[in-house]
Description:
By secondary structure, the protein is an alpha+beta fold. The protein contains 1 helix and 6 strands; from the N terminus they run E-E-E-E-E-E-H. Mean pLDDT is 85; it is low at 1-12.
Amino acid sequence: MASSIPSPQDGTSYADRRVYPRVPVALPAFLQANGERHSAQILDLSSGGAKLNCPASPSVGMAVLLECGTLGRPGVVRWKNGALLGLCFDSELGAQEISALMERSRALDAWMKARD
Length: 116
């Protein structure tokens, strides 16, 4: 039986194999890990996870809680590269939650530009 999962030799980029489409955002957040709360920034988001910039990044496999406004979502650290890390949420974000976070990111961007 042939595998339907692309191999690295297929020439398909990792982004093309993702289960959930990602949307770029720029949102301040907090990441709770090991009983500590760290400042973070959400860089992109999908129903299944998020990419963060968090200088105090926890280890791969660690259970964490991502907080952003009214969103509080438990997840697991799947990868990290320096201050960047990828989370996989324990339960998917709904379309309304993603839309609300995207709108919050746009509003924050507009506010920051107006301040300049």
